[in-house]
Amino acid sequence: MNVLLTADQIRDRVHALAAEVRDAYVGKPFTVVGVLTGSLVFLADLIRQIDLPLQIGLIAASSYRGTATSPGELTIKDDLLPDIRGRHLLLLDDILDTGQTVTRLVEHLRDRGAASVRVCVFLRKTGRQRIPFEPDFCGFTIPDAFVVGYGLDYNDEYRHLPYIGILAE
């Protein structure tokens, strides 16, 4: 496996992202909503560096099954969300790929009564977006390669790796 982003690079960027997020939410009641399961490592590292009161919620959105590398029909499960009506949300996702999932999630959260929804993605893959979407915060822009580690998986493996690697075919 080729290492694309080292653990040190990730740590430094997450620290900088935490400062950006903190500055954006000072004085606002906000909830960080992590997209299961890929964002969990990123969520844990990021929120520990944000020195503001915040709530945490989780939402499941999946269009990939098993070893699939192209999306299917999107399913959303939001039973792990607190009451988000009137709150400012930071939707945290592991990767911005086609843009379909994140745009549907933003719409879903707004429909549930969020005061605002901003998006933070750990990775943004180039050349794959089908739906125009600009995240408010982005960790890294990466080439169009299948990556694993730091929460991202292949068939639910490799999430535990402290780095981002390009999975060998």
From TrEMBL:
Belongs to the purine/pyrimidine phosphoribosyltransferase family. One of its GO terms (biological process) is purine ribonucleoside salvage. It is found in: Cytoplasm. One of its GO terms (molecular function) is guanine phosphoribosyltransferase activity. Pathway: Purine metabolism; IMP biosynthesis via salvage pathway; IMP from hypoxanthine: step 1/1. NCBIfam families: HGPRTase. GO terms for cellular component: cytosol. It comes from Fimbriiglobus ruber. Residues 8-154 form the Phosphoribosyltransferase domain. This is Hypoxanthine phosphoribosyltransferase. Its main location: cytoplasm. It catalyses: GMP + diphosphate = guanine + 5-phospho-alpha-D-ribose 1-diphosphate; IMP + diphosphate = hypoxanthine + 5-phospho-alpha-D-ribose 1-diphosphate. Pfam families: Pribosyltran.
